[in-house]
Amino acid sequence: MSTSLMKAVRQHAFGGPDQLRYEDAPKPVAKAGEVLVRVHAVGVNPPDWYLREGYKTLPPEWRPAATFPLILGTDVSGVVADVGDGVEGFSVGDEVYAMVRFPDGMAGGSQAYAQYVSVPAAELAIKPASVDHAHAAGAPMSLLTAWQFLVDLGHDEPNAVQPGPHHPVPLAGKTVLVNGAAGGVGHFVVQVAKLKGARVIATASSRHSEMLKSLGADEVIDYTKTVPEDVVRDVDLVVDAVGGPTSGRFLRSIKRGGALFPIFPLGFADADEAARLGVTVSATQVRSSGAQLHELAALLDSGAIRVVLDSTYPLADANRAHERAERGHIQGKIVLTVD
């Protein structure tokens, strides 16, 4: 029996952007409970290049086993091409967006860098009508991360990065410092915190200042000229969208009873100091949620939350998109467009 083919970006070994190959691949089908989406745009996220490299930043025991060839990517916007058995609420021709099988697909099971992808119906939502596919594809993982950290987890799965559950904190009337505010997650954290009534201080280089103020930042600190933790004091919450081992430097900026949310918590080594200062340090693992994307679609549709695009590349040039990501200093999101 012949297999239908599509174009996809696959890799046959771990490595750099040069491992990404635009080639023929089997076209997926919509199994029971799934929807087949004809992809129009794909959002590029850090887990994409983590997987491309073999998750070198994770401890060896955490690295998922990958089977080659694999297809990267989780975030898509497109049109329903087929609906599997038992699926309700979606029809052929619907414009939809999703974060596909994350974190369950961390080893390459999401497979979004392609012309077609099968999506569990529970992870899918109708695309906001006023937002084009490129901007819609830039939203799912980064916006869900901001929402699940700041507003609502949306699930009760065990926390993979700490013993207990993550608890968002009330934001109305609070002061929030966002480190790495211009990036994919950071620019959504700024908007969500402002939407929920916080005063927002953003850290970014000066070239991002105008953009961040347009998104609601009350103050922007140029970290290339001023060390934020040297001048900021008594904030209620720091969201470190960069994260990693250096997050602890922000503890001195947080008032007793406040919180530090490192988006990338691995390597944090200042738990004792946080306890001494009375600061809660908490994080979570973003998870796919069609229900939350449905809720967020209304905010995207109204313009209450905006997606900023750093750059777009054709799917065939995914390697160039990854090269752009490696250069850093991204403003918003990188997106692949699909013919």
Characterization of this structure:
22% of the residues lie in helices and 27% in strands. 48% of the residues are buried. The protein is α/β, with parallel strands linked by helices. It has helices at residues 46-53, 133-137, 140-150, 184-195, 209-214, 228-231, 271-277, 290-302, 318-327, and strands at 5-11, 21-26, 34-44, 70-71, 75-83, 95-99, 116-120, 124-126, 175-179, 199-204, 219-222, 235-240, 254-262, 280-281, 309-314, 333-337. It is built from 9 helices and 16 strands. The chain folds into 2 domains: 5-140 and 289-337, Quinone Oxidoreductase, Chain A, domain 1 (Alpha-Beta Complex); 167-281, 3-Layer(aba) Sandwich (Rossmann fold), CATH 3.40.50.720. The strands form 3 sheets. Strands 3, 5, 6, 7, 8, 15 and 16 form a 7-stranded mixed sheet that branches. A 6-stranded parallel sheet has the order 11-10-9-12-13-14. The mean pLDDT is 96.
Task: Note the main attributes of this structure.
six-stranded parallel beta sheet, 2 domains, 339 residues, Rossmann fold, alpha/beta, seven-stranded mixed beta sheet, globular
Low-confidence stretches: none
Oligomer: single chain
Task: Write down the overall geometry.
Answer: globular
Main sheet characteristics: 7 strands, mixed
Instruction: Say what the CATH topology of the largest domain is.
Output: Quinone Oxidoreductase, Chain A, domain 1
Report the β-strand fraction as a percent range.
Answer: 25-35%
Gap between N and C termini, in Å? Answer: 27 Å
Total number of helical segments?
9
- Average the pLDDT over all residues and give the rounded result: 96
Helix/strand/pairing category = alpha/beta
Q: What's the total count of β strands?
A: 16
| Rg value | 20 Å
**Regarding CATH, which class of the largest domain?**
Alpha Beta
